[in-house]
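Worked Example 4.2. Read the sequence first, then its structure tokens.
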Amino acid sequence: MNAKSGMQTMRTAQEPTIREPRRRVVGEAPLRSEVLTTQVGLHIPPELGFDDWERAGRQLAGVVDSSSWWLGDWLVYGKDNYADRYQRGIRAAGLKYQTLRNYAWVSRRFELTRRRARLTFQHHAEVASLTFDQQERWLDRAEGKKWTTKQLRKAIRDAGDGDTSEEERPMLTRRLAVPGGRVQWWRKAAEQSGVDFNKWVLVTLDQAAEQILED
């Protein structure tokens, strides 16, 4: 990053790369094939070609998706190595703890060697609550059929118990009395998170239990 301008150069490579850009004169416009990133937006040259614009979008999407893994791994490391101080680091970084917990939960469920570069972080989040074998099976299908996260979610939902072995099925179902209006509130939160409602409930309860037991 250029210390004076706060800009990074988004190269027109097929895969996102993070490189130190060449120094620029203050006020200098980006080259015709360059999109420059700043902390508050993009500098896009007025005559940027469609191919370069499209490629920049792919790079931006890759950075956004990778950042979920990066932040998740960052929090996991902090919790494992600085148990008494990592929350101070979160506050100093100005990040939302609950968002990081979601990222960290998925990151813990998938070791680095199991993460599929051809699938997004959200693909992995969709199957994170499943067993190891189920995770691998659904990720294989999503990768092979080039499913979007919505298609993957629908396939899992449509499969129901048919994709779960006898030993993996819950042995008992319990009913929980919930005050009126809470369920709709929770459903709205699950919808905004892009996660199936039942899965959202399980993940949220697991995370709450983990936090209490860790503390």
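Now turn to a second chain, presented in exactly the same format:
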Amino acid sequence: MKKGFIFDLDGVIVDTAKYHYLAWQKLAHELGFEFTKQQNELFKGVSRKRCLEILLDIGNVNATQQQFDHWMITKNEDYLEYIEKMDASEILPDVPKVLEYLKQNDIPIALGSASKNAQPILEKVGLLPYFNTIVDGNNVTKAKPDPEVFLLAAKQLGVNASNCVVFEDAVAGVQAANAAKMVSIGIGDDNILSEAKFNFADFTEISTSFIQQLIEK
């Protein structure tokens, strides 16, 4: 049975979360309050719109629709400035090893991310050729933990959802993969990502023999 592998972007393939944090922190400062790394954990796997809603709640800031739209654009422009300088050094350890193994075995690969900047980031770090399809914030209307992003990725790969494997670093992403009846693999703290079927701190812990087992199951 044909298998498909789906990867989240932020915190799985590259660590762009730090740039999101800097952009949100800058906006918070402009609005007159502090935004901590601990509070930033609430933003993992969440859409930009929802992130801004959470940020305004943290700062107890009320906004008109016009202000809200303006701050959404401002944050993204700041973020784009940060990622403009990204290159292959930003790829998290051993991610290329796994992607290369899948490619050599003709396994279709998708990106399933809330990011609206997924394609340019993959281009900058040189990983775009590995992906058969990209489903990101430009293609979906429902944020994780809704499984829409992963179900659409499976459809575009031409693979049954139950035959897909998802790599995620966020609780909402793991929940989305589970809701889609896919094999969920948590990348990060296994205490936080306890709902995942398998857990690894990072890709250095994932052997090609484990990937082969996933392909054959």
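Notes for the reader: The first strand starts at residue 4 and ends at 7. The mean pLDDT is 95.
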